[in-house]
Amino acid sequence: MKRILDMITEKMQAAFEAAGYDPSFGRVNVSNRPDLCEYQCNGALAAAKQYKCAPIQIANAVVAQLDRADYDLADAVMPGFINLKLSGAFLAKYLEQMRTAPDFGVEKTGAGQTCVVDYGGANVAKPLHIGHLRPAIIGESLKRLYQFFGFNAIGDVHLGDWGLQMGLIIAELQDRQPELPYFDPNFTGEYPVDPPFTLSDLEEIYPAASARKKVDEEFAARAHAATFELQQGRRGYRAIWQHIMNISIPDLRRIYDRLDVHFEKWLGESDAEPYIPAMIQRLKDEGYAVESDGALVFPVAEDTDKKEVPPCILVKSDGAAIYATTDLATMVQRMRDWNPDKMLYVTDKRQNLHFEQIFRAAKKSGIVRPETELEHVGHGTMNGADGKPFKTRDGGVLRLETLIQDMTDFVRAKVVENQIVEESAVEETTAKIALAALKYGDLSNQPTKDYNFDLERFAAFEGNTGPYILYTIVRIKSILAKYGPWEHLPIQEPANDFAKDLMLSVTKLAPTLENALKSSAPNLICAYIFELAGAVNKFYHETRILTEEDETLKAGYIALIGLAKNILETCIHILGFEAPEKM
Ligand code: ARG
Predict the structure, then answer these.
(1) Total Cβ atoms within 10 A of residue 111
(2) Is residue 382 classed as helix, strand or coil in its secondary structure?
(3) Residues with beta carbon inside 6 Å of ligand 1?
(4) What is the dihedral of CA 31, 34, 38, 42, to 10 degrees?
(5) How far is the CA of 323 from the centre of ligand 1 (A)?
């Protein structure tokens, strides 16, 4: 379906042409003076220069060519603006098309294309901490947005499961339980099926080893050596690694589930391992990779660089493959298995340089196709309510689960206090509201910006919050339920200004989603649904809906709020949360 602005522009261009002027002057914009008009065309001012006459003369001639049925107002005003207000009939027809088209008539521009969304980035054996909230929430939302546009969007968590944390755990475990068969290089039997540690053991072992690494050089060296041997395939270490994976992944899954974040693929850095040797060999053979101080590097600097872009390190002097290597090898795997048109990475923006380097390396060496789009969505930091980095009382990093729990407890208290639902529905309702508070609080900020986490503000039922959006949806749902079957009712012409404002908001859906996709900005969707919810609530306050005696009029109101509800629900689904039945 055409965007409304394009439709109006085409009509305006036809009018310019009919009046004897170049149609390219007919561009229409949303008015920046909503007190005067809804849309505006300033083309006559530019045309006047070309045709050497007064702009108002052109504007008048063009307006005379417009079809009056499309507009409540179509005025040429000094010095040569054309001010427009759409007619109710035009709007009603447009919204009726939106109502009956699949997905409100938004063009499926991604059909036939594949996009890998690399987000989440959890590290095995380490608990998720608050730094993992944003990549999970933003990534999930972008993936859903791609899916909405018809892309085959593949979310891949890209687990950190191949790095030093594994070597640290192995070295620490060896010190604690040297008698285990995993450490005996001569052991050839079957390793035990049961892991030598539990999840809570792991949660203690890793931080202990990580702290030790900083003060104990000998231990750090052993951990590095263990990481290297693991990567080389030492049997006993691979067996420990498998135990760690088996224990850690279900726990990561459980927390991502709580966030309603779901990955199509649970691949990790370790899955790139099989692709590394051949990739490295080729990069060497073709002269992309060169020796430098005992390491193997891929120079990616360009003459036009304003800042220094250091080479990508592929193999360190101790022989271990690192972050860039696994990321490049992962691209090899993705191209081979899925041949994506695009790869999108959602991580902290402090990783900008890393992605710049590997994107260049991948393009230069043909790991991806020349036309494969590579994008890094670098997000800012979530700080505490005081604007300072989030810390626990003892100065540690806050666990993601604790943050979710705090939000849940806060919301539950409200739900219980206000007796929002019967006891049996308290948990489900609470979970939905808490998730909306958390996600909307995050997504309503531009991804690149830092923001302050403010539990009370995010969870408020009024203001620019997730719960406010849910509340609006729930309110509409309850009106619709009282009315009875409504899905078949057609959209009618607006009966008052509030209805018209609401209808104008509805028309902005497609451009909003398109812009959000183009600029990887879910915050645009948040701003849109906040506006739409405001228009619904205004309409609701100013209009007697269920008590309206004229049944035809009433059916039109119901159709309109029904459409608004469907759009709100679609948008929050893209953002990654849903509305409860009651609130
Ligand atoms: N595990 C990484 C971290 O914690 C994030 C991974 C991001 N994705 C990627 N393909 N590098 O920083």
Answers:
(1) 10
(2) strand
(3) 118, 121, 123, 158, 160, 327, 345, 347
(4) -30
(5) 8
pLDDT of 419 strictly over 70 = yes
pTM: predicted TM-score of the whole model, two decimal places: 0.95
What the block records as the tokens of 392 is 């626990």
Ligand 1: nearest atom to the Cα of 123: 1
Dist. CA 81 → ligand 1 center (Å): 52
What is the distance in A from the centroid of ligand 1 to the CA of 271? Answer: 14
pLDDT-derived band of residue 322, with 50, 70 and 90 as boundaries?
confident
Measured CA to CA, the distance from residue 459 to residue 541 in angstroms comes to: 23
- One-character DSSP codes across 524-544: HHHHHHHHHHHHHHHHHHHS-
Mutation test residue for ligand 1: of 158, 326, 354, the one with most atoms within 8 Å of CB: 158
The sign one gets for the Cα dihedral 255, 256, 257, 258 is positive
For residue 269, the CA-to-ligand 1 centroid distance in Å is: 9
Nearest alpha carbon, ligand 1 atom 3:
121
Contact by Cβ (8 Å): 522, 134: no
pLDDT tens digits for range 79-103: 999 999 999 999 999 999 999 999 9
Q: Which of 8, 12, 108, 37 is nearest to 510 (CA)?
A: 108
> Residue 321: its pLDDT value, please?
65
152: its two tokens:
């085959």
- Name the packing angle between helices 400-417 and 426-443 (round to 10°): 120
Which residue's CA is the closest to the ligand 1 atom numbered 11? 327
Beta strands in 306-437 (DSSP E): 312-315, 342-348, 373-379, 382-383
Beta carbons of 27 and 73 less than 8 angstroms apart? no
d(CA 58, CA 149): 40
Point out the ligand 1 atom lying closest to the alpha carbon of residue 348.
Answer: 12
Q: How confident is the model at residue 395 (pLDDT cuts 50, 70, 90)?
A: confident
End-to-end CA distance of the chain: 35
Which two structure tokens, joined as six digits, stand for 165?
Answer: 């944390």
Q: How confident is the model at residue 248 (pLDDT cuts 50, 70, 90)?
A: very high
The ligand 1 atom at the shortest distance from the C-alpha of residue 159 is 1
How far, in Å, are 51, 258, 274, 297, 443 from residue 279 at the CA level?
62, 38, 9, 13, 38
472-527 confidence digits (pLDDT tens): 999 999 999 999 999 999 999 999 999 999 999 999 999 999 999 999 999 999 99
For position 320, what pLDDT does the model report? 67
